[in-house]
Amino acid sequence: NPPPLVTCAKLGDNGDIASVTPNATRAPQPADGQDPPGTTANATRAQAGTYQCRATNAHGSAVRNVTVAVEYGPAGVTVRALPSANVTRGSGFTVECGAEALPPPSYSWALPSAPNARLAADNRSVTVSGATAANRGVYTCTAVNRHGRRAGSVVVRVDESWLVVLVALGALGGVTALGLAVAGGFYLKSTACKKGEYNVRDAEGSSEAACLHRQRDNRGDIFGIQLTQP
Asked: Where, by residue number, does the polypeptide cross the bilayer (predicted)?
């Protein structure tokens, strides 16, 4: 007495005064059904923090701090696959979810049904080991608190192209092996038989060879054999 002049200021991170309310006010008791002076109709997240109020009259002053928390629903939901949303078959990956909210939100998931998917204890992530085709699809995370809900999604693709390559290589290998076998057989039939020892009687009676001549030297009889086309 007399009623004090009251001013309030928001403190910065280092404790210094960051901002001051536009008008200093006295502190009369509000009438029933009316907001007290200085009330904000729509609080924003920027208004959260610690405020310092000072009351002053002709006889002195008093200071008190008050911390204001502004609650809000989930915002900025992020869903990401690590190390990548493009996964190689047989490898592992993790899908993580995060959201800004006060109070902190709870999380739930909608994801492809697969036995190798495991949820973390806090439900903020899903871990998959030994990825298969069953793990590809949309992973949707929903963050919820008492002020609302928000969802985010990511599409995971399981790359099986290496299997196609292996199958193609296998098929190519099979064709190549068959080709080599045919070529080898042709070579053995058309070339290998031109070298080595022959049974003259068999050559004379064969449709693939004919005895041309016979001569004698110190090594014995030498026969000339002509091979026909196979």
From this structure: 162-188
